[in-house]
Protein backbone atom coordinates (compact mmCIF):
# COMPACT_ATOMS: atom_id res chain seq x y z
CA UNK A 1 0.00 0.00 0.00
CA UNK A 2 1.30 3.48 -0.88
CA UNK A 3 0.42 6.10 1.71
CA UNK A 4 1.95 9.58 1.87
CA UNK A 5 2.95 10.99 5.27
CA UNK A 6 4.39 14.27 6.57
CA UNK A 7 7.30 14.19 4.10
CA UNK A 8 6.43 12.00 1.12
CA UNK A 9 5.94 8.24 0.85
CA UNK A 10 8.30 6.13 2.95
CA UNK A 11 8.36 2.35 3.21
CA UNK A 12 10.62 -0.54 4.15
CA UNK A 13 12.67 -1.77 1.19
CA UNK A 14 11.35 -5.10 -0.07
CA UNK A 15 8.16 -4.73 1.92
CA UNK A 16 6.21 -1.87 0.34
CA UNK A 17 9.16 -0.11 -1.28
CA UNK A 18 9.26 -2.30 -4.37
CA UNK A 19 9.80 -1.78 -8.09
CA UNK A 20 6.11 -2.44 -8.69
CA UNK A 21 4.98 0.24 -6.24
CA UNK A 22 7.50 2.76 -7.61
CA UNK A 23 6.11 2.12 -11.09
CA UNK A 24 2.54 2.51 -9.83
CA UNK A 25 3.31 5.79 -8.10
CA UNK A 26 5.05 7.06 -11.24
CA UNK A 27 2.11 6.04 -13.42
CA UNK A 28 -0.23 7.82 -10.99
CA UNK A 29 1.78 11.01 -11.53
CA UNK A 30 1.74 10.40 -15.29
CA UNK A 31 -2.07 10.17 -15.26
CA UNK A 32 -2.35 13.25 -13.04
CA UNK A 33 -0.04 15.25 -15.31
CA UNK A 34 -2.00 14.21 -18.39
CA UNK A 35 -5.31 15.14 -16.77
CA UNK A 36 -3.87 18.51 -15.78
CA UNK A 37 -2.51 19.10 -19.29
CA UNK A 38 1.08 19.56 -18.09
CA UNK A 39 2.56 16.27 -19.34
CA UNK A 40 4.68 17.81 -22.10
CA UNK A 41 6.42 20.11 -19.58
CA UNK A 42 8.09 17.09 -18.04
CA UNK A 43 9.34 16.02 -14.65
CA UNK A 44 12.68 16.19 -12.80
CA UNK A 45 13.85 13.04 -10.99
CA UNK A 46 16.66 12.90 -8.45
CA UNK A 47 17.96 10.39 -5.92
CA UNK A 48 20.02 10.22 -2.74
CA UNK A 49 22.68 7.69 -1.63
CA UNK A 50 20.36 5.11 -0.11
CA UNK A 51 20.22 1.49 -1.15
CA UNK A 52 18.20 1.18 -4.41
CA UNK A 53 17.77 4.96 -4.81
CA UNK A 54 19.41 5.26 -8.23
CA UNK A 55 17.73 2.09 -9.49
CA UNK A 56 14.37 3.41 -8.30
CA UNK A 57 14.95 6.71 -10.11
CA UNK A 58 15.61 4.72 -13.28
CA UNK A 59 12.47 2.59 -12.78
CA UNK A 60 10.41 5.74 -12.32
CA UNK A 61 11.94 7.40 -15.40
CA UNK A 62 11.06 4.38 -17.53
CA UNK A 63 7.37 4.85 -16.76
CA UNK A 64 7.37 8.55 -17.72
CA UNK A 65 9.39 7.81 -20.87
CA UNK A 66 6.89 5.18 -22.01
CA UNK A 67 4.18 7.82 -21.79
CA UNK A 68 6.21 10.36 -23.74
CA UNK A 69 6.73 12.64 -20.73
CA UNK A 70 10.18 14.31 -20.80
CA UNK A 71 12.39 13.34 -17.85
CA UNK A 72 15.23 15.48 -16.53
CA UNK A 73 17.26 12.79 -14.79
CA UNK A 74 19.56 14.38 -12.22
CA UNK A 75 22.73 12.41 -12.50
CA UNK A 76 24.71 11.61 -9.36
CA UNK A 77 23.22 11.49 -5.88
CA UNK A 78 21.88 14.94 -5.04
CA UNK A 79 20.44 16.87 -2.10
CA UNK A 80 16.63 17.12 -1.94
CA UNK A 81 16.81 20.96 -1.94
CA UNK A 82 18.67 20.84 -5.25
CA UNK A 83 15.71 19.03 -6.89
CA UNK A 84 13.29 21.53 -5.32
CA UNK A 85 15.42 24.40 -6.59
CA UNK A 86 15.55 22.89 -10.09
CA UNK A 87 11.76 22.41 -10.25
CA UNK A 88 11.27 26.02 -9.13
CA UNK A 89 13.92 27.59 -11.37
CA UNK A 90 12.85 25.70 -14.52
CA UNK A 91 9.14 26.09 -13.81
CA UNK A 92 8.43 22.38 -14.00
CA UNK A 93 5.01 21.17 -12.86
CA UNK A 94 6.45 18.25 -10.87
CA UNK A 95 9.62 16.75 -9.46
CA UNK A 96 10.41 13.51 -7.68
CA UNK A 97 13.17 12.65 -5.24
CA UNK A 98 14.01 9.10 -4.25
CA UNK A 99 14.82 9.32 -0.56
CA UNK A 100 13.60 8.32 2.87
CA UNK A 101 15.31 11.38 4.31
CA UNK A 102 16.27 10.72 7.94
CA UNK A 103 14.53 7.33 8.33
CA UNK A 104 16.49 4.19 9.25
CA UNK A 105 18.53 2.46 6.52
CA UNK A 106 15.92 -0.20 5.81
CA UNK A 107 13.59 2.50 4.46
CA UNK A 108 13.44 4.25 1.15
CA UNK A 109 10.76 6.51 -0.28
CA UNK A 110 9.68 9.18 -2.71
CA UNK A 111 9.10 12.89 -2.16
CA UNK A 112 6.93 14.60 -4.78
CA UNK A 113 7.36 18.29 -5.55
CA UNK A 114 4.85 20.50 -7.28
CA UNK A 115 5.02 23.81 -9.13
CA UNK A 116 7.40 26.24 -7.46
CA UNK A 117 9.44 23.32 -6.06
CA UNK A 118 7.09 22.82 -3.11
CA UNK A 119 6.41 19.65 -1.17
CA UNK A 120 3.17 18.22 -2.54
CA UNK A 121 0.45 19.26 -0.10
CA UNK A 122 -2.15 16.97 1.41
CA UNK A 123 -4.64 17.60 -1.36
CA UNK A 124 -2.06 16.71 -3.99
CA UNK A 125 -0.87 13.57 -2.22
CA UNK A 126 -4.47 12.44 -1.65
CA UNK A 127 -5.07 12.86 -5.37
CA UNK A 128 -1.95 10.85 -6.19
CA UNK A 129 -3.20 8.14 -3.83
CA UNK A 130 -6.54 8.14 -5.66
CA UNK A 131 -4.77 7.75 -9.01
CA UNK A 132 -2.73 4.89 -7.51
CA UNK A 133 -5.92 3.20 -6.42
CA UNK A 134 -7.27 3.46 -9.97
CA UNK A 135 -4.07 1.93 -11.33
CA UNK A 136 -4.24 -0.92 -8.82
CA UNK A 137 -7.68 -1.77 -10.10
CA UNK A 138 -6.38 -1.72 -13.67
CA UNK A 139 -3.42 -3.85 -12.64
CA UNK A 140 -5.78 -6.41 -11.18
CA UNK A 141 -7.72 -6.38 -14.42
CA UNK A 142 -4.70 -6.63 -16.67
CA UNK A 143 -3.00 -9.04 -14.25
CA UNK A 144 0.37 -7.96 -15.51
CA UNK A 145 2.70 -5.06 -14.92
CA UNK A 146 5.38 -3.66 -17.26
CA UNK A 147 7.02 -5.06 -20.37
CA UNK A 148 3.72 -6.10 -21.96
CA UNK A 149 2.40 -9.62 -22.28
CA UNK A 150 -0.04 -11.60 -24.25
CA UNK A 151 -2.66 -11.03 -21.60
CA UNK A 152 -3.30 -7.57 -23.09
CA UNK A 153 -2.20 -3.96 -22.59
CA UNK A 154 -0.42 -3.68 -19.22
CA UNK A 155 -1.63 -1.04 -16.71
CA UNK A 156 1.90 0.32 -16.37
CA UNK A 157 4.06 0.43 -19.49
CA UNK A 158 7.78 1.14 -19.50
CA UNK A 159 10.41 2.25 -21.98
CA UNK A 160 13.81 0.90 -21.05
CA UNK A 161 16.10 3.59 -19.67
CA UNK A 162 18.78 3.28 -22.37
CA UNK A 163 16.14 3.54 -25.06
CA UNK A 164 14.72 6.64 -23.32
CA UNK A 165 18.19 8.20 -23.36
CA UNK A 166 18.54 7.25 -27.04
CA UNK A 167 15.26 8.86 -28.05
CA UNK A 168 16.03 11.91 -25.92
CA UNK A 169 12.86 11.60 -23.84
CA UNK A 170 15.14 11.01 -20.83
CA UNK A 171 17.88 13.62 -20.49
CA UNK A 172 20.66 13.19 -17.96
CA UNK A 173 21.59 16.53 -16.39
CA UNK A 174 23.73 17.88 -13.57
CA UNK A 175 22.37 21.17 -12.20
CA UNK A 176 24.73 21.25 -9.19
CA UNK A 177 26.54 24.41 -10.32
CA UNK A 178 23.29 26.27 -10.86
CA UNK A 179 22.13 25.36 -7.36
CA UNK A 180 25.45 26.24 -5.72
CA UNK A 181 25.77 29.54 -7.58
CA UNK A 182 22.34 30.50 -6.34
CA UNK A 183 23.43 30.01 -2.72
CA UNK A 184 26.80 31.66 -3.30
CA UNK A 185 25.01 34.66 -4.80
CA UNK A 186 22.66 34.93 -1.81
CA UNK A 187 25.19 34.99 1.04
CA UNK A 188 27.93 37.43 1.97
CA UNK A 189 30.87 35.35 0.70
CA UNK A 190 33.31 38.23 1.19
CA UNK A 191 32.51 38.46 4.90
CA UNK A 192 33.13 34.73 5.24
CA UNK A 193 36.40 34.94 3.26
CA UNK A 194 37.67 37.68 5.56
CA UNK A 195 37.25 35.56 8.68
CA UNK A 196 39.20 32.41 7.74
CA UNK A 197 36.89 30.05 9.61
CA UNK A 198 37.61 26.42 10.41
CA UNK A 199 34.58 24.25 9.76
CA UNK A 200 33.89 20.56 10.35
CA UNK A 201 31.24 18.88 8.20
CA UNK A 202 29.38 15.63 8.91
CA UNK A 203 27.18 14.71 5.92
CA UNK A 204 26.12 11.59 7.88
CA UNK A 205 27.06 9.46 4.82
CA UNK A 206 24.44 11.43 2.87
CA UNK A 207 24.44 13.88 -0.01
CA UNK A 208 25.62 17.28 1.27
CA UNK A 209 29.39 16.76 1.07
CA UNK A 210 30.13 18.10 -2.43
CA UNK A 211 27.82 21.10 -2.06
CA UNK A 212 28.99 22.21 1.38
CA UNK A 213 32.64 21.60 0.66
CA UNK A 214 32.45 23.58 -2.60
CA UNK A 215 30.61 26.57 -1.14
CA UNK A 216 32.76 26.81 1.97
CA UNK A 217 36.04 26.25 0.16
CA UNK A 218 35.03 28.98 -2.31
CA UNK A 219 34.72 31.25 0.73
CA UNK A 220 38.24 30.11 1.74
CA UNK A 221 37.14 28.28 4.88
CA UNK A 222 39.30 25.49 6.22
CA UNK A 223 36.87 22.59 5.64
CA UNK A 224 37.28 19.16 7.24
CA UNK A 225 34.84 16.32 6.63
CA UNK A 226 33.92 13.17 8.56
CA UNK A 227 31.54 10.36 7.51
CA UNK A 228 31.78 11.21 3.83
CA UNK A 229 32.10 7.69 2.40
CA UNK A 230 29.18 5.92 0.77
CA UNK A 231 27.57 3.72 3.41
CA UNK A 232 23.95 2.78 2.83
CA UNK A 233 23.75 1.64 6.48
CA UNK A 234 24.69 5.15 7.66
CA UNK A 235 27.35 3.83 10.01
CA UNK A 236 24.65 1.97 11.94
CA UNK A 237 23.04 5.22 13.10
CA UNK A 238 19.97 7.15 12.08
CA UNK A 239 20.94 9.75 9.43
CA UNK A 240 19.22 12.45 11.48
CA UNK A 241 21.32 15.09 13.27
CA UNK A 242 20.77 14.91 17.03
CA UNK A 243 22.82 15.19 20.22
CA UNK A 244 23.10 11.40 20.13
CA UNK A 245 24.08 10.94 16.46
CA UNK A 246 26.56 13.83 16.35
CA UNK A 247 28.93 12.71 19.13
CA UNK A 248 31.85 12.21 16.71
CA UNK A 249 31.30 15.66 15.25
CA UNK A 250 31.23 17.15 18.77
CA UNK A 251 34.59 15.59 19.57
CA UNK A 252 36.01 16.63 16.23
CA UNK A 253 34.98 20.27 16.70
CA UNK A 254 36.51 20.42 20.17
CA UNK A 255 39.73 18.56 19.26
CA UNK A 256 40.40 20.64 16.12
CA UNK A 257 39.15 23.91 17.63
CA UNK A 258 36.60 24.44 14.85
CA UNK A 259 34.34 27.49 14.73
CA UNK A 260 31.33 25.33 13.90
CA UNK A 261 30.41 21.72 13.15
CA UNK A 262 27.73 21.27 10.51
CA UNK A 263 25.74 18.10 9.94
CA UNK A 264 22.95 17.38 7.49
CA UNK A 265 20.50 14.49 7.39
CA UNK A 266 20.42 11.76 4.72
CA UNK A 267 19.02 13.96 1.95
CA UNK A 268 20.46 17.27 3.25
CA UNK A 269 17.23 19.14 3.83
CA UNK A 270 17.79 19.26 7.60
CA UNK A 271 20.70 20.77 9.47
CA UNK A 272 22.33 20.00 12.83
CA UNK A 273 24.94 22.21 14.44
CA UNK A 274 27.75 21.84 16.99
CA UNK A 275 28.89 25.19 18.38
CA UNK A 276 32.48 26.32 19.07
CA UNK A 277 32.35 24.81 22.58
CA UNK A 278 31.24 21.38 21.32
CA UNK A 279 27.63 21.87 22.35
CA UNK A 280 24.84 20.45 20.17
CA UNK A 281 22.55 23.29 19.18
CA UNK A 282 18.94 22.25 19.03
CA UNK A 283 17.21 23.15 15.72
CA UNK A 284 15.00 25.44 17.81
CA UNK A 285 18.10 27.45 18.81
CA UNK A 286 19.30 27.61 15.22
CA UNK A 287 15.96 28.98 14.05
CA UNK A 288 15.87 31.59 16.79
CA UNK A 289 19.47 32.63 16.07
CA UNK A 290 18.92 33.01 12.36
CA UNK A 291 15.71 35.01 12.77
CA UNK A 292 17.45 37.24 15.35
CA UNK A 293 20.43 37.65 13.03
CA UNK A 294 18.43 38.49 9.91
CA UNK A 295 16.38 41.14 11.71
CA UNK A 296 18.98 42.60 14.06
CA UNK A 297 22.13 42.48 11.93
CA UNK A 298 20.79 42.48 8.38
CA UNK A 299 17.82 44.75 8.98
CA UNK A 300 15.24 42.43 7.39
CA UNK A 301 11.63 43.06 8.32
CA UNK A 302 8.92 40.45 8.59
CA UNK A 303 7.30 37.59 10.46
CA UNK A 304 8.48 34.09 11.32
CA UNK A 305 6.62 30.80 10.81
CA UNK A 306 6.99 27.70 12.99
CA UNK A 307 5.07 24.45 13.43
CA UNK A 308 3.06 23.46 16.52
CA UNK A 309 5.98 21.48 17.92
CA UNK A 310 8.61 24.21 17.62
CA UNK A 311 9.86 26.65 20.24
CA UNK A 312 7.73 29.61 21.29
CA UNK A 313 10.97 31.54 21.83
CA UNK A 314 10.38 32.56 18.23
CA UNK A 315 7.14 34.23 19.31
CA UNK A 316 9.04 36.14 22.00
CA UNK A 317 11.78 37.31 19.66
CA UNK A 318 9.25 38.26 16.98
CA UNK A 319 7.30 40.24 19.57
CA UNK A 320 10.51 41.96 20.65
CA UNK A 321 11.01 43.14 17.08
CA UNK A 322 7.34 44.16 16.76
CA UNK A 323 6.74 41.27 14.37
CA UNK A 324 4.45 38.23 14.31
CA UNK A 325 5.01 34.51 14.67
CA UNK A 326 2.61 32.17 12.85
CA UNK A 327 1.86 28.59 13.89
CA UNK A 328 1.08 25.75 11.44
CA UNK A 329 0.80 21.92 11.65
CA UNK A 330 3.97 19.80 11.33
CA UNK A 331 5.11 19.46 7.71
CA UNK A 332 7.18 21.83 5.66
CA UNK A 333 4.43 22.25 3.08
CA UNK A 334 2.51 24.20 5.74
CA UNK A 335 5.56 26.29 6.62
CA UNK A 336 6.28 27.35 3.04
CA UNK A 337 2.60 28.04 2.29
CA UNK A 338 2.34 30.32 5.33
CA UNK A 339 5.64 32.03 4.50
CA UNK A 340 4.32 32.86 1.06
CA UNK A 341 1.04 34.10 2.44
CA UNK A 342 2.69 36.36 5.04
CA UNK A 343 5.97 37.13 3.26
CA UNK A 344 7.73 35.89 6.40
CA UNK A 345 11.52 36.13 6.72
CA UNK A 346 12.12 32.61 7.90
CA UNK A 347 10.17 29.46 8.61
CA UNK A 348 11.23 26.25 10.26
CA UNK A 349 10.58 23.24 12.41
CA UNK A 350 12.08 21.72 15.55
CA UNK A 351 12.92 18.66 13.45
CA UNK A 352 15.72 20.67 11.84
CA UNK A 353 14.40 22.13 8.59
CA UNK A 354 14.25 25.79 7.66
CA UNK A 355 14.20 28.13 4.72
CA UNK A 356 14.49 31.87 4.27
CA UNK A 357 12.56 34.40 2.18
CA UNK A 358 13.81 34.51 -1.40
CA UNK A 359 15.27 31.01 -1.29
CA UNK A 360 13.50 27.74 -2.20
CA UNK A 361 10.02 26.79 -1.00
CA UNK A 362 11.32 23.90 1.06
CA UNK A 363 13.87 23.27 3.75
CA UNK A 364 17.51 23.38 2.76
CA UNK A 365 20.23 22.16 5.11
CA UNK A 366 22.98 23.39 2.79
CA UNK A 367 21.66 26.91 2.50
CA UNK A 368 20.86 27.05 6.25
CA UNK A 369 24.42 25.98 7.10
CA UNK A 370 25.93 28.57 4.80
CA UNK A 371 23.79 31.27 6.37
CA UNK A 372 24.97 30.22 9.84
CA UNK A 373 28.56 30.54 8.69
CA UNK A 374 27.73 33.98 7.29
CA UNK A 375 26.21 34.88 10.66
CA UNK A 376 29.45 34.00 12.48
CA UNK A 377 31.43 36.06 9.95
CA UNK A 378 29.18 39.13 9.84
CA UNK A 379 28.56 39.38 13.60
CA UNK A 380 32.19 38.59 14.36
CA UNK A 381 30.85 36.53 17.29
CA UNK A 382 31.18 32.88 18.18
CA UNK A 383 27.98 30.81 18.08
CA UNK A 384 28.13 30.36 21.86
CA UNK A 385 28.27 34.15 22.28
CA UNK A 386 25.27 34.77 20.00
CA UNK A 387 23.31 32.19 22.02
CA UNK A 388 24.30 34.02 25.23
CA UNK A 389 23.23 37.38 23.79
CA UNK A 390 19.79 36.00 22.95
CA UNK A 391 19.42 34.36 26.35
CA UNK A 392 20.30 37.62 28.10
CA UNK A 393 17.70 39.49 26.07
CA UNK A 394 14.88 36.95 26.04
CA UNK A 395 15.57 34.49 28.87
CA UNK A 396 15.97 30.72 28.69
CA UNK A 397 13.42 28.13 27.79
CA UNK A 398 13.64 24.33 27.87
CA UNK A 399 12.11 21.75 25.56
CA UNK A 400 11.63 18.11 26.55
CA UNK A 401 11.13 15.75 23.57
CA UNK A 402 10.02 12.15 23.94
CA UNK A 403 9.08 9.53 21.34
CA UNK A 404 7.09 6.35 22.04
CA UNK A 405 6.56 3.12 20.12
CA UNK A 406 3.15 1.45 20.16
CA UNK A 407 1.23 -1.59 18.98
CA UNK A 408 -1.72 -0.97 16.64
CA UNK A 409 -4.08 -1.63 19.55
CA UNK A 410 -2.28 0.91 21.73
CA UNK A 411 -2.29 3.44 18.92
CA UNK A 412 -6.06 3.12 18.52
CA UNK A 413 -6.49 3.51 22.26
CA UNK A 414 -4.33 6.65 22.46
CA UNK A 415 -6.05 8.09 19.41
CA UNK A 416 -9.44 7.50 20.97
CA UNK A 417 -8.51 8.94 24.38
CA UNK A 418 -6.69 12.05 23.15
CA UNK A 419 -8.25 12.91 19.85
CA UNK A 420 -11.80 11.49 19.92
CA UNK A 421 -12.79 11.63 23.60
CA UNK A 422 -10.44 14.59 24.04
CA UNK A 423 -9.45 13.52 27.55
CA UNK A 424 -6.39 14.97 29.28
CA UNK A 425 -4.38 14.10 32.39
CA UNK A 426 -4.77 16.14 35.56
CA UNK A 427 -2.26 18.98 35.31
CA UNK A 428 -1.22 21.39 38.05
CA UNK A 429 -0.61 24.33 35.68
CA UNK A 430 -3.33 26.67 34.56
CA UNK A 431 -4.48 25.98 31.00
CA UNK A 432 -4.88 28.86 28.57
CA UNK A 433 -6.28 26.96 25.57
CA UNK A 434 -6.24 23.57 23.83
CA UNK A 435 -5.78 23.02 20.10
CA UNK A 436 -6.31 19.96 17.88
CA UNK A 437 -4.67 21.46 14.79
CA UNK A 438 -2.12 18.60 14.79
CA UNK A 439 -2.47 16.07 17.61
CA UNK A 440 -3.42 17.61 20.94
CA UNK A 441 -1.62 20.75 22.16
CA UNK A 442 -2.20 22.37 25.54
CA UNK A 443 -1.09 25.98 26.00
CA UNK A 444 -0.52 27.05 29.60
CA UNK A 445 -1.01 30.48 31.12
CA UNK A 446 2.70 30.56 32.11
CA UNK A 447 3.67 30.55 28.40
CA UNK A 448 4.63 26.84 28.38
CA UNK A 449 2.95 24.17 26.26
CA UNK A 450 2.79 20.43 25.69
CA UNK A 451 1.86 18.52 22.54
CA UNK A 452 1.13 14.84 21.91
CA UNK A 453 0.91 13.87 18.23
CA UNK A 454 1.49 10.88 16.02
CA UNK A 455 4.51 11.26 13.75
CA UNK A 456 3.69 11.36 10.07
CA UNK A 457 7.03 9.83 9.10
CA UNK A 458 7.68 7.12 11.68
CA UNK A 459 5.46 4.76 13.70
CA UNK A 460 5.89 6.88 16.85
CA UNK A 461 3.92 9.08 19.23
CA UNK A 462 5.79 12.31 19.96
CA UNK A 463 5.32 14.22 23.20
CA UNK A 464 7.10 17.59 23.31
CA UNK A 465 6.85 20.06 26.16
CA UNK A 466 8.41 23.51 26.52
CA UNK A 467 8.68 25.34 29.83
CA UNK A 468 10.77 28.04 31.47
CA UNK A 469 11.71 25.51 34.15
CA UNK A 470 13.03 22.17 32.82
CA UNK A 471 11.55 20.38 35.85
CA UNK A 472 8.05 21.49 34.80
CA UNK A 473 8.65 20.13 31.29
CA UNK A 474 9.68 16.72 32.63
CA UNK A 475 6.77 16.62 35.07
CA UNK A 476 4.24 17.44 32.34
CA UNK A 477 5.64 14.77 30.01
CA UNK A 478 5.46 12.25 32.85
CA UNK A 479 1.83 13.10 33.53
CA UNK A 480 0.98 12.38 29.88
CA UNK A 481 3.04 9.17 30.02
CA UNK A 482 1.18 7.92 33.06
CA UNK A 483 -2.19 8.97 31.74
CA UNK A 484 -1.66 7.15 28.43
CA UNK A 485 0.13 4.25 30.12
CA UNK A 486 3.16 4.38 27.81
CA UNK A 487 6.02 4.63 30.29
CA UNK A 488 7.61 1.44 29.02
CA UNK A 489 7.23 2.39 25.35
CA UNK A 490 9.89 5.08 25.10
CA UNK A 491 11.90 4.89 21.91
O1 LIG B 1 7.13 14.48 13.47
P1 LIG B 1 6.99 13.93 12.08
O2 LIG B 1 5.56 13.91 11.60
O3 LIG B 1 7.70 12.62 11.96
O4 LIG B 1 7.71 14.96 11.14
C1 LIG B 1 9.05 15.35 11.35
C2 LIG B 1 9.56 15.97 10.06
O5 LIG B 1 9.56 14.96 9.08
C3 LIG B 1 9.93 15.32 7.75
O6 LIG B 1 11.27 15.65 7.73
C4 LIG B 1 9.07 16.44 7.25
O7 LIG B 1 9.53 16.86 5.99
C5 LIG B 1 9.09 17.59 8.22
O8 LIG B 1 8.22 18.60 7.77
C6 LIG B 1 8.70 17.14 9.62
O9 LIG B 1 8.85 18.18 10.56
TrEMBL record:
<keyword id="KW-0597">Phosphoprotein</keyword>
<dbReference type="InterPro" id="IPR016066">
    <property type="entry name" value="A-D-PHexomutase_CS"/>
</dbReference>
<keyword id="KW-0460">Magnesium</keyword>
<dbReference type="InterPro" id="IPR016055">
    <property type="entry name" value="A-D-PHexomutase_a/b/a-I/II/III"/>
</dbReference>
<comment type="similarity">
    <text>Belongs to the phosphohexose mutase family.</text>
</comment>
<dbReference type="Pfam" id="PF02880">
    <property type="entry name" value="PGM_PMM_III"/>
</dbReference>
<feature type="domain" description="Alpha-D-phosphohexomutase alpha/beta/alpha">
    <location>
        <begin position="283"/>
        <end position="394"/>
    </location>
</feature>
<feature type="domain" description="Alpha-D-phosphohexomutase alpha/beta/alpha">
    <location>
        <begin position="178"/>
        <end position="278"/>
    </location>
</feature>
<protein>
    <recommendedName>
        <fullName>Phosphoglucomutase</fullName>
        <ecNumber>5.4.2.2</ecNumber>
    </recommendedName>
</protein>
<dbReference type="Pfam" id="PF02878">
    <property type="entry name" value="PGM_PMM_I"/>
</dbReference>
<dbReference type="Pfam" id="PF00408">
    <property type="entry name" value="PGM_PMM_IV"/>
</dbReference>
<dbReference type="InterPro" id="IPR005843">
    <property type="entry name" value="A-D-PHexomutase_C"/>
</dbReference>
<comment type="pathway">
    <text>Glycolipid metabolism; diglucosyl-diacylglycerol biosynthesis.</text>
</comment>
<keyword id="KW-0413">Isomerase</keyword>
<keyword id="KW-0479">Metal-binding</keyword>
<dbReference type="InterPro" id="IPR005845">
    <property type="entry name" value="A-D-PHexomutase_a/b/a-II"/>
</dbReference>
<dbReference type="InterPro" id="IPR005841">
    <property type="entry name" value="Alpha-D-phosphohexomutase_SF"/>
</dbReference>
<feature type="domain" description="Alpha-D-phosphohexomutase C-terminal">
    <location>
        <begin position="440"/>
        <end position="478"/>
    </location>
</feature>
<dbReference type="InterPro" id="IPR005846">
    <property type="entry name" value="A-D-PHexomutase_a/b/a-III"/>
</dbReference>
<dbReference type="Pfam" id="PF02879">
    <property type="entry name" value="PGM_PMM_II"/>
</dbReference>
<dbReference type="InterPro" id="IPR005844">
    <property type="entry name" value="A-D-PHexomutase_a/b/a-I"/>
</dbReference>
<dbReference type="InterPro" id="IPR036900">
    <property type="entry name" value="A-D-PHexomutase_C_sf"/>
</dbReference>
<comment type="pathway">
    <text>Lipid metabolism.</text>
</comment>
<feature type="domain" description="Alpha-D-phosphohexomutase alpha/beta/alpha">
    <location>
        <begin position="2"/>
        <end position="137"/>
    </location>
</feature>
